[in-house]
Design a protein that fits this description.
This protein is α+β, with helices and mostly antiparallel strands. Helix content is 23%, strand content 15%. It contains three helices and four strands. The strands form two sheets. It has a two-stranded antiparallel sheet. A hairpin with a 7-residue loop joins β3 and β4.
C-alpha cells in the first residue's frame, strides 16, 4: 500500500498563505480555520519587517524557500516579475480580494516551476507507479491454518 503526499494550502484573508504536507489525506477532514489555529503564530503583515527584492529593492509579495536541497530562495516581486506568465498570474491572484483559494496550488506550482527554471533547475517528471506483478501460479493462500 502506498501513501500519497500532497500539499494542503491554507490562505489567509490578506492573500498570504502557508502549506503543509497532507500525507495520505490525513488533513482532509481538518478545516482551514483549525489549521490556522494550529499553525505557528505569524505577526500581522504590517508588523512583519518588509523584505526588499534582491533585484530592485522594492517590497516583495512573497519570499519562499525553493524545493528541498536546492538552496534557492524564490522571490515574487510585482515590479521584476510582471512580465513572467506564471509570476504575473500569482501576483494577480494575490491582489484579487475575491481570490479563489482552490486556484492557489496550481498557480504556486507554475510559479515555482518558472522561478526554478530561471535559476537553471528543471522539474523532474513524476514516475508512474510500478505495476504490481501477478501472483505466481501455485502460491494462492490456503485460508486459515
Amino acid at each position: 500500500m502506498s501513501q500519497s503526499s500532497v500539499w494542503r494550502y491554507v490562505v489567509r484573508p490578506d492573500g498570504s498563505f502557508f502549506r503543509t504536507l497532507n500525507v495520505g489525506g490525513d488533513l482532509d477532514d481538518v478545516s482551514d480555520e483549525e489549521l490556522l489555529r494550529l499553525s505557528p503564530a505569524v505577526p500581522d503583515r504590517d508588523e512583519r519587517p518588509l523584505r526588499p527584492c534582491s533585484r530592485c529593492g522594492d517590497d516583495l509579495l512573497l519570499r519562499w524557500n525553493g524545493p528541498l536541497g536546492t538552496g534557492v530562495w524564490m522571490e515574487l516581486c510585482p515590479a521584476c516579475d510582471a512580465e513572467r506568465p506564471a509570476a504575473s498570474a500569482l501576483i494577480r491572484w494575490h491582489r484579487d480580494p475575491d481570490r479563489d483559494p482552490k486556484a492557489l496550488p496550481k498557480l504556486f506550482e507554475d510559479w515555482e516551476t518558472e522561478t526554478m527554471h530561471a535559476q537553471g533547475w528543471a522539474r523532474a517528471e513524476q514516475p508512474e507507479a510500478a505495476a504490481c506483478p501477478p501472483a505466481p501460479p501455485g502460491l494462492t493462500p490456503r485460508g486459515r491454518g
